[in-house]
């Protein structure tokens, strides 16, 4: 059985967010809880991921990241080099964009090394936190399949992504 580990971004993912919908869809979905959701430090977040991943057979693990959670996963891969089943990277925030001014520490520069397991990057054509070109660039560098779902904002509650069945269908191709 695949174990799905959810990696939210800044502020966590609230009760209406598609990550919560995913989490509630089965007993093999687990949210990775961080200590500091609003002013995160990369080293702490990736350590928390590694501790949770270590609870499972690596061959069964699929990570599900959103926004800063995607960059947390990529930084985790760079440091720990674990071989897992796969990762779904939804709306990876571009921390290097001038308008990204959230209080994050240690997440950049954004790692651009190829990821050694199957990954899918899902992006939106009108996401304010990552341009479609940058999302495609990240996918190419990481060796990820790239899916553009059109004008879907930041693929969060504000853009209407709550019970996100399309995302769940894409996720199932990894596990």
Low-confidence parts: none
Secondary structure: helix percent: 25-40%
Strand fraction equals 15-25%
Terminal-residue CA separation: 8 Å
The CATH H-level superfamily is: Alpha/Beta hydrolase fold, catalytic domain
State the major sheet: 6 strands, parallel
CATH class: Alpha Beta
- Element string (H = helix, E = strand): EHEHEHEEHEH
**Radius of gyration computed on alpha carbons:** 14 Å
Q: Give the tally of structural domains.
A: 1
Strand order of the largest sheet: 2-1-3-4-5-6
Total DSSP E strands: 6
Q: What is the third-level CATH name, the topology?
A: Rossmann fold
Derived from helix and strand composition plus strand pairing, the structural class reads: alpha/beta
Whole-number mean pLDDT: 96
- Give the overall shape, derived from the CA principal axes: globular
So, CATH architecture?
Answer: 3-Layer(aba) Sandwich
Structure description:
The protein has 175 residues and is an alpha/beta fold. 29% of the residues lie in helices and 17% in strands. It is built from five helices and six strands. It has helices at residues 18-23, 42-53, 68-80, 132-142, 165-172; strands spanning 3-7, 29-31, 61-66, 86-90, 118-123, 145-148. It has a six-stranded parallel beta sheet with strand order 2-1-3-4-5-6. Strand 5, helix 4 and strand 6 form a beta-alpha-beta unit. The longest helix is centred in the middle third of the chain and has 13 residues, at 68-80. The chain starts with a strand and ends with a helix. The mean pLDDT is 96.
